[in-house]
Amino acid sequence: MNYKTLMALALSSLLLVACSSTSERPGGVQIEDRDVIGGAAGQGDGVQAGSAQFGGEFGAEALTDPDSPLAKRVIYFAFDSSEVTPEGRDLIALHARYLSQNPGINVVLEGHADERGSREYNLGLGERRAKAVEQLMSLQGVAARQMQTISFGEERPVAFGHDESAWQLNRRVELLYSGY
Amino acid sequence: MKLNSVLNPGRFLLALFAVLLSATAQARLNIEITQGMEGAMPIAVVPFGWQGDGAPVQDIAAIIGADLARSGQFAPMGSEAMPQRPTDGANVNFNLWRAKDIDSLVVGRLERRDGRYQVWFQLFDTVRGVQLAGYTLQVTEKQLRQTAHQIADIIYQRLTGQRGAFDTHIAYVTVENLEAGQRRFRLAVADADGHNEQIILSSGQPLLSPVWAPDGRRLAYVSFEGGRSMVYVQDVLNGQREKVAEFPGINSAPAFSPNGQYLALSLSRDGNPEIYVLELLSKRLVRVTYSYGIDTEPVWAADGRSLYFTSDRGGRPQIYRVAIEQDGRPVGTPSRLTFEGAYNASPALSPDGKRLAMVQGEGNRFRIAVLDLDTNALRVLTDTRLDESPTFAPNGVMVLYATEVAGRGVLEAVSVDGRARQRLGTSTGDVREPTWSPFSTQQEQ
User: Fold this and answer.
1) Which of A88, B37, B91, B327 is the most exposed place for a label (fewest CB within 10 A)?
2) pLDDT tens, B385-405?
3) pTM for the whole thing?
4) Which residues from A are below 8 Å from B292, CB to CB?
5) How far apart are the C-alpha atoms of B250 and B224, rounded to whole Å?
6) B309 with B297: CB under 8 angstroms?
């Protein structure tokens, strides 16, 4: 993990979030973003009119259509790494676009690790992977309140073997849309 | 069985129950000695005499012999090879045993009297023809196994000079795969020889990192029953449990301070996993570490004034040590202790504070290694490939850990010199996350 890059990402994402400190749900109810740190938050004229969006370019069935590109919801990682691969970046960009166009939709980013090594360390690694995805999503305009990260470490494998063919499937972040 | 608590319905609706330790005993762990020790001390434990109706309820000599054999330091003689079977010291013919190269001899008998049991035993040095130990004990039927372990402890201490750890307990997690991808996690407590297993918690969500309090009565552990990791403390005797850490993010890796009043743990409430110390009574929380890496798996030094922990602040996981005040406030900056091996995690400190057991990873192999803190000599003890969670016996002689054999999770114990090894497994499912109790165990039943 390159912490300088991570910090740069974190800072730039903070700026992005700060620029959109208030956001509107489709129903027009204003939500204050509690995670915002910085100047734009809490300014007096925070009321903004906005148009409702349902599904945006993805259509209303985007999350239930098995043929939708959004049907892919798992991002895989290399051993002991939380660096997002180019394929992972593409998938994250797609979901980030959907989420930023649908601010009323929330996602849980569930981080996992393979079974090797310490269970406790792997719990941290799963969280780091989930946060790496969250960071990229945030950078691409997804509001912090739309995302929640949880780590299960190595405790919830999808493949139960004890070799690389199983391990590569278990090193992952799953995108879980609430209600889908 | 007592229904102790039914948890809040959440994202995962589940019923969770704690069972009193007095629930019906059932032995489910099987022990197999996989590597004996060359030069183990020959000893004979003669089958105990029995006075009472029917057959004796416990084979005391067999329990003692099995304990001594498991230590790797003794090679008990099979009863079929014994030249005589005395049940009282007065009938021992030392020449017969010397001729069989048996230097140490245990004889004894068991008698039922008014619903209670009386146990006599004597330990002899056959070379000098003298008694080294001899006791009479009065116990109930339920205490007979424990009494046999206590006798084994006395023999072990008399012959090796080290305290025996046979009359102690272990706790561990078992996992069973049910239909439809469901799994059943159980937190179990058993005697150190795997007998008398009792389930103290059962859950549909993962359980990990159980650890004993110094009183030998409470266990802290991590449960995902609330949909994410949270830390609980449970009284093993009455089943009462308390959620002690449910901060945002990860709540994990609990470890009791030597005085039992503080819990060190790893929390990611401030963004990434850091070490904290929680005062259990006041719930006052003190942050110990500050790094961008993952800081986890704290263990206390015996004096309570430093913590060992895993951190990848240097890139890969390694073991660090930080000095602390009594309440956990750090003194100075953490220093790195492990430099050999690309991956070192899950530290466990020996009871004398001189050795650190850990999981060492090289390529695809994760094995148990022990670091001598005085000389910095590191010794790999195992040759399996997916070892986890080392825990020292309270006398420091054995290290118990989890590993995988033929696709199944099992527990193995290895002597700190790497010479003796044994395996504890169940007939179904996986066993993992072992933790060995301290000496001052209070689980008399």
Assistant:
1) B91
2) 999 999 999 999 999 999 999
3) 0.84
4) 3, 6
5) 10
6) yes
